[in-house]
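Students often ask why we bother encoding 3D structure as a string. The short answer is that it lets us treat folding as translation between two languages. Here is a chain of 82 residues written in the first language.
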Amino acid sequence: MRSRDLAGDNTLLLTQEFVAQMLGVRRTSVSLVANTLQSAGLIRYRRGRIEIADLEGLRSASYECYGRVKAHYDRLLAGGTK
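And here it is in the second language, the structure alphabet:
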């Protein structure tokens, strides 16, 4: 979600390997989650291309985590502009 916000687009060109490195997890974990999200109809994933199919559904599924990350980022950004 955060990458989508920063990119301003529902299509992200990210490999599973890159996402795994960003998150500090194994690529197989990213694959498992991507498959789960795709099965739920929230994303479409194919070889380095993630397309958000249901933005509101994805927000709902990830809101607690996403909300905390976004709030922290916004606080940091606001703190740097004063």
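Translate back mentally: The beta strands are 11-12, 43-46, 49-52. Keep this in mind for the problem set.
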